[in-house]
Amino acid sequence: MALVQVVFASFSPVSMTAVDPKTLPVTTDLARQLRAHVDELASPKLRGRKPGTEGNRAAAAYLEARFREVGLHPLASLGGYRQPISDELGDNVIGVRPAQAGTSARWLLIGAHYDHLGGNYLGADDNASALAILIETARSLPPLPTHPVLFVAFNAEEPPYIRTEQMGSQHFVDHLPAEIGSPSDIQAVVIMDLMGGVHWAPLQNVLFAAGAEKSPALYRRLLETMGAADRETLDVRRETLGEMHKGVGPSSPSSRFTSPGSRLTVLPVGMHLVEEIPLMGQVAFSDYDAFRNRSVPFLFLSAGRTPRYHQPTDLPDTLHYERMAATVPWLRDLIERLDQDREPYRFDPTRIEFADEVATFRPLVEQAAEWGTRIPGTSPISLWKLKRDRDWLARLDPAAPRPEDVTRLERLSLRMQCLLTDLPVCFLL
C-alpha cells in the first residue's frame, strides 16, 4: 500500500487526451465512399440492425444491392444473394467473385457481420466499418487467376447468438452452399470486426492481425503484405511505431515498412493474446470461431475496441475513415498474394509466434507506461503495473519463452485491451 501511495503522489494532474475522431480529416474519395456506407448502415432509421427487425432486413437489402452493384455473383444453389438462417433472425448475404479459371479451386472468403444490438445502439464501428471495407474491397478486386472469392455479410453475431448454432457464421459453416462443398474446400478466411475505431494516439493508424499464426504459409503471406518477410525486418518495423508517434511522418525512412502513401500499420498478435480471460479460459469474440472450429485457416483483422464499444456513442462521426481507406488496397494485396498459393494451408491450433508478439507489444507498452503518452483513463496503479511489464519485456528473451512468459503476455494484452475500452476494473488485472 505504501508503494501505491507513492505512485499516486508522484504524478502531475496533466492528463493524456484521447484522439477525437471528429478532428481527423476525410480527404480521399474512397474515405468519403466508406463514410457513405457507414452513414447508411448506422443510420437511426435502421434502428441498430438487430436480427429479425425491419432495420436488419433493410441492412441486408442494402448489402445485397451493393454486392450486385460491384459485380459480385449470387450462388446458384441459393437462388440469389441470401442464405436464410431462420424466419425469426433473417439471412446471411453472400456474393462471389469467380476466378478466371472457374470455380474448381479452393475458396477464399472475406467476411464481416452486419447485425448490431438494436434500438439506439447504431453500431458504426461494430460493424458498419468492416462492411464498408468489405464492399469497397469487392469493388476493387478483379477475378483472380486461381481462387474464387466469397464476400459474406454474416447476420446474428452479437449476443445472445454469438457462439451458438444461430450465429450467422456458424450457420454458414453448418450449411455450406453446394458450390463450396465442405470446410476443407475453403483455403482461407479473413474476418473483419471493429475496423474504424480510434482512441489512443499510438494506435491511430494501426490494424491488428490475429490468427494467421496458426497456418505458416498464411502467416508468411501476411508478413509479406506488411513488408516484412523475415523476423529481422519485422523487429525493425515494430520500432517504427514508437518513432511515428514521436512525430516522424509517413514518408520518413523509418516508416518504410508502411505501404507507400498509406497511413496503415498492420501488427500481428496471437489469438491467445486476444481471447485468454482469467478464470474463464478461451473466449471467442467474432465470426472467425466457426471456421477455426473446423480447422479452416483464418485471419482476424480489427482495430480493437474503444470506449464506444457496444455503446450508443458508436456513431458514424467517431470513425477513422482514412485508415479504413488504407485498409482496402492492403486487403486487396493480401488476397492477391493468397491467390498465388494452390497447396492447402496447414492448420495448427496450438501454434504461436511469440517473438513477433513481443515485438508488437514492446513499443506499445513503452508508451502506455509513460504518464505523458499513457492510454487515456489509465490509473496510477495500472501505470505502475505497465512499468513493471515494460521492464519485463526489456529483459525477456522472446526466442525461448517459458509457459509463465506466455501467460504474462496474455495478462498484459488483456490489461491493454481493458484500458483501451476504458473499463473501470483495469487496475485489477
List the secondary-structure elements in sequence, H or E: HHHEEEHEHEEHHEHEEHEHHHH
Number of helices: 13
Q: What's the arrangement of strands in the largest beta sheet? A: 1-2-4-3-5-10-6-7
- Roughly how many Å apart are the termini? 17 Å
What is the rounded Rg? 21 Å
Task: Report the β-strand fraction as a percent range.
Answer: 5-15%
Describe this structure in words.
With 429 residues, the chain is an alpha/beta fold. Helices cover 38% and strands 12% of the residues. It has helices at residues 2-9, 29-41, 54-69, 124-140, 168-174, 216-225, 231-245, 271-275, 288-292, 321-338, 354-368, 380-395, 403-421; strands spanning 82-86, 90-97, 107-113, 149-154, 186-192, 206-210, 265-269, 276-277, 281-282, 298-302. The strands form 2 sheets. Strands 1-2-4-3-5-10-6-7 form an 8-stranded mixed beta sheet, with helices on both faces. A two-stranded antiparallel sheet has the order 8-9. α4 (124-140) packs across α10 and α11 packs across α12. The longest helix is centred in the last third of the chain and has 19 residues, at 403-421. Residues 1-15, 228-234 and 240-261 have low confidence and may be disordered.
Quick summary:
With 429 residues, the protein is α/β, with parallel strands linked by helices. The protein is built from 13 helices and ten strands.
Key features of this structure:
429 residues, two-stranded antiparallel sheet, 38% helix, eight-stranded mixed sheet, alpha/beta, globular
